[in-house]
Amino acid sequence: VVMTQSPLSLPVALGQPASISCRSSQSLLYSDGNTYLSWFQQRPGQSPRRLIYKVSYRDSGVPDRFSGSGSGTDFTLKISRVEAEDVGVYYCMQGTHWPWTFGQGTKVEIK
Amino acid sequence: QVQLVQSGAEVKKPGASVKVSCKSSGYTFTSYYLYWVRQAPGQGLECMGIINPNTDSPNYAQNFQGRVTMTRDTSASTVYMELSSLRFEDTAVYYCARGDGYNYSLDYWGQGTLVTVSS
User: Fold this and answer.
1) CA of A22 to nearest chain B CA: how many angstroms apart?
2) Angle at the Cα of B76 from the Cα atoms of B100 and B73, rounded to 5 degrees
3) Are residues B106 and A38, on separate chains, in Cβ contact within 8 Å?
4) Residue A48 and residue B109: Cβ atoms within 8 Å?
5) pLDDT means over runs of 10, chain B (119 residues)
6) Radius of gyration for the alpha carbons in chain A, expressed in angstroms and rounded
7) Could you tell me which chain A residue has the CA closest to the CA of B63?
8) Beta B45-52 vs B57-60: how paired, if at all?
């Protein structure tokens, strides 16, 4: 399953919203009724950190300015107000079809 | 707290093999699958495969079939990933990550191991 993110680069002013799109080449709706789409943040020099799983469930400790939405083949990660610590690369990943696959990544930087 | 601690950086020649370890702590080792994901320099993330620490049964992504072997040592709460017939393009950071059960996701990641293939 090919995961396609856009944009690949996203300059955002501090305090402004940001939105990243992720599209899959096949539906991510699993036979159990769940959709297994996750979002990860990778800060420079660090390992990836999960922010969101099952489309919209936020991980413990993740600020509520991060939110996920979508269904089927079309998903979005939104940051309501970008802060300096949000700089990094964001990846979507599908866990519905094996092997799990990632998007190419979206680099968020401060304008 | 859950921790995945990987072995240190490696430099290998083309055609050689490399074995990377990932030691788990802070949870019941046999209760969660472990995955291997690699990231070439400046590139994205690629899932290599998964191992069930309870049964020692792996499942490899097709891109790595025939070259990768994933094993585990229950007594040491450690999984291993061995990649053979190394090529220059295998230069990457290799991560282990814990599978998040029925959420079909990855909730904890190791710190990564840089493998450099150089003549």
Assistant:
1) 14
2) 75
3) yes
4) yes
5) 98 98 97 96 94 93 96 97 97 97 94 98
6) 13
7) A99
8) antiparallel
